[in-house]
Design brief:
The protein has helices spanning 2-27, 35-53, 56-80, 85-103, 129-133, 138-156, 158-168, 170-175, 180-206, 218-228, 233-255, 262-266, 268-281, 284-290. The protein is mainly α. Helix 2 (35-53) crosses helix 9, helix 3 (56-80) packs antiparallel against helix 9 (180-206) and helix 10 packs across helix 11. The mean pLDDT is 89.
Length: 303
C-alpha cells in the first residue's frame, strides 16, 4: 500500500503541474488546448538535455523553456492576431506530437544517468508513511506548495485579484489602464512553462525514458481536470492524485494477478475522466458560476 501511495503522488504530480498551468491560462480568459503538444516537446527537450549534460535539473529547466516558448507563440497568435483559441490550441497539440516524434528518433534507445535518491531525514524512516510520503522527488512537494500559493495568490493578493478581474471583464481592466494583452501573454507563458515542467518531469523523473507519444493523453486529462476542479488549485491537486491513483491501480491489479484484460485496465484513467465530465455536466449552472466569464473570448483594446 505504501508503494501505491508513493506511485500515486509521483503520477499525480505530472497532471497537477499541467493542470495548474492551464488554470493560470484560463483564469485570465485564455483556453489552451495545446497542452498535449507542449508536454511532448518539453519531454523530449528535457530528456535530450539530461542525455547530453547529465544534469536532471537542467533537463527540467529545458522542459520549462520549451513549454514557455510554445505557449508564447500560441499567446501571440490568439492575443495579438486574434486567431481562434480552440483551433490554435489544437494545431499546437498536433504540431507538438509530430515535432517531438521527429526530434526524438535518435533518443528512443538512450538511457539517463541514475537519478539522485531523495529522502527527508528522520521522517523517511518512519514505518509505512516514510516510504510513501517522505522519499519523493522535491518537485512533488513543490507542486503541493504551488497549489497552496496559488490559492493564497488569487484570493488574497492585489495582483491575483487583478488577474481574476481580467478573466471576468478584460474591458473593465483595460479601462482602468492595465495592459490586458501583455498580462495575458505573460500568464500564458507561465502556464506553458508549468506544462513544460510536467512533460520534462514525465520523461526524466517519472519514467526516465523517451517514447513517441509518451504523454498518452495526460494533457487532455489535465485540461478536463481544470473544469472538474472548477478552477480551484487545491481541488486540482486532489483531482490529479485521484487520476494518478487510478492510473497506478491498473499496475497494482496486474501485479496482483487480477483476471481483467490489460486493455480494460489501461482504459481506467480515461474512463474515470469521462465519468467525472459526465457528472459535472449534469449541473452546468455550477460550472458557469465558477468559470471565468471571458474564457475563450478574444479581446481587442478599443482604439
Amino acid at each position: 500500500m505504501d508503494l501505491l501511495i508513493a506511485a500515486t503522488l509521483n503520477a499525480g504530480t505530472v497532471l497537477a503541474l499541467a493542470a495548474l498551468g492551464l488554470m493560470i491560462n484560463e483564469k485570465i480568459g485564455v483556453i489552451n488546448l495545446g497542452a498535449e503538444g507542449m508536454m511532448l516537446c518539453a519531454a523530449i527537450a528535457g530528456f535530450a538535455t539530461v542525455v547530453h549534460t547529465g544534469s536532471h535539473s537542467a533537463g527540467l529547466l529545458a522542459g520549462m523553456a520549451a513549454g514557455a516558448v510554445m505557449a508564447a507563440l500560441f499567446g501571440w497568435l490568439v492575443i495579438y492576431l486574434h486567431t481562434n483559441q480552440y483551433a490554435s490550441g489544437l494545431a499546437l497539440s498536433i504540431f507538438g506530437l509530430g515535432f517531438s516524434a521527429y526530434m526524438g528518433v535518435d533518443y528512443v534507445q538512450s538511457t539517463l544517468p541514475a537519478s539522485p535518491r531523495y529522502a527527508i531525514a528522520l521522517l523517511a524512516d518512519l514505518p509505512f508513511v516514510g516510504p510513501a510520503l517522505f522519499r519523493q522527488h522535491p518537485l512533488v512537494y513543490l507542486t503541493m506548495a504551488l497549489a497552496v500559493f496559488l490559492l493564497w495568490f488569487y484570493g488574497r493578493t492585489r495582483t491575483g485579484l487583478l488577474l481574476r478581474s481580467i478573466g471576468e471583464s478584460p474591458e473593465s481592466a483595460h479601462a482602468l489602464g492595465y495592459r490586458v494583452q501583455a498580462i495575458r501573454l505573460l500568464c500564458v507563458s507561465i502556464g506553458g512553462a508549468l506544462c513544460g515542467l510536467a512533460g520534462a518531469y514525465l520523461s526524466t523523473v517519472y519514467s526516465s525514458l523517451w517514447a513517441e507519444g509518451m504523454v498518452a493523453g495526460r494533457g487532455w486529462i489535465a485540461l478536463a481536470l481544470t473544469a472538474f476542479a472548477t478552477w480551484r488549485p487545491l481541488r486540482i491537486l486532489v483531482g490529479a492524485y485521484l487520476f494518478g491513483g487510478v492510473t497506478m491501480l491498473q499496475f497494482s491489479m496486474q501485479a496482483a494477478g487480477v483476471q481483467i484484460p490489460s486493455q480494460l485496465l489501461s482504459m481506467l484513467p480515461y474512463l474515470a475522466t469521462i465519468a467525472v465530465l459526465v457528472l459535472i455536466s449534469r449541473n452546468p449552472a455550477w460550472i458557469r458560476a465558477n468559470m471565468p466569464a471571458s474564457l475563450g473570448k478574444p479581446f481587442a483594446p478599443p482604439r
